[in-house]
User: Fold this.
Amino acid sequence: MVERNDWLSRTSRRKFLKGMAGGVAVSTVGFEGISLKARASYPPYGAQSGMVRWESVFSVPPDVTRPWLAAGLWSNRMQDWRLHDGRIECLAGGLNDLGRTVALLTHEIGPGRASGHFSVRSGILELSGRGGFGGYLIGVGGGLLDYRASALAQKASGEGGGFWCGYEADGQIRFRDHFTEADPLSYEALEAETFQIEEPAFRNLSEEITLQLDIEPDERGRFDVSLLALDGATGELRAGAVRRGVPEQDVAGGVALASSPLPDGRARFWFRDLQSGGDKIIVRQDRAIGPILSTMYSLNRNVLKMSAQLMPLSESEPKTVRLEVRSGGAQWREVARSSWGGGYTALLRVDNWDSSQAWDYRVRYRDWAGMDHEHIGVVQSDPKHEDGFTIAHLSCVMPTARGLEDGTGEAELPMAEPLGRYTSKNIHFPHTELIGNISSHKPRLLVCAGDQIYEGNPTSADSPDNPTLDYLYKWYLWAWAFKDLT
Assistant:
């Protein structure tokens, strides 16, 4: 009989798969046609689809440090993550920092009998005590939620929460519950088949790992979900695990990167070079947001004032924001420019504005790579000569009914219906029905009369150390939802 380490170093991926038949519990997907040691110089392979056509999920500047990660990503919470030297780094890893996530806005797991794959480079920033896990959260919303609502999935588990796929501090891969309502921070381990090439060793700060997630359909219309930890330098398998027979409603939906400590531990992880592939992964680049998130304007006689809300950039990045206008399809012309400043806003002003007609506008920002980004809209004409116009009034706008950090799913009143947590009953954001109703009336004036955000919703107010980013995290939800109205 061949010793396990010798067998692993000499076997092909196909032979490795056949190890299951001999009674060795191994991951059964992601190993077709190339030896494990050669993994370092090749992209991951899917077991049934041949070579996966890998595509990068996002691109970032290599030498910038900032809170905003990238246009296709949403961090939970904003102050808990940063972009640093081309890596996404989690900044929160203590007792109360479970389930920090970075949602993929432009990618989700779709319906249908197809394969899907993700691959990301990862390592450890901090580890002590029981440690924690880094990896993925998948299946958020079960394919039933608006992608923006799914992007809020984080700390507390609950209905529609999906499940964690993580490489843990003890060197093992586990899948953990993120759908339990009764004990939302327990993250109980789910049944899975696992494989180690040797006795698992506690992870260390110097390692770099490739975490490969594979979703493969089985013969019963369900899916096998596997996670592999591959040495970033040699490509050798460190650990693997597979959940078999997962229903599609538990797989489909939102996807996020995850960094989380476990009880009695501290842990923070970093990620870079995220890739995706396979027909089960839906890619929608039009869902990316930033660096310009939204604009708001007011018109007072012939003076136009406009504010442009940017994502939290670095002070080392370009600061100029330009306002351009046109009428009747004519050429764009610049009428104002400003530098973004406090709160990552740029204040633009135009005197002697012709308010007798409507104007198309675009706010433009040129980034570190020389690429122009824009936000477009229309400045309406002054309705002073009209018989009347519609005013829309907004107040008490709350993203969620229940918070996303704790609390069980029990109804507060005897006859009340449970809301779930990652469901359309609980998550009001992005307020699609409300915005549709307002838009149908074609308002000329939007009056926001208070309580457009709540400091304690959808997450509790942070400590005084992070007041700006914590407030912006909640303000950005409002600006993101209502940007087509404002």
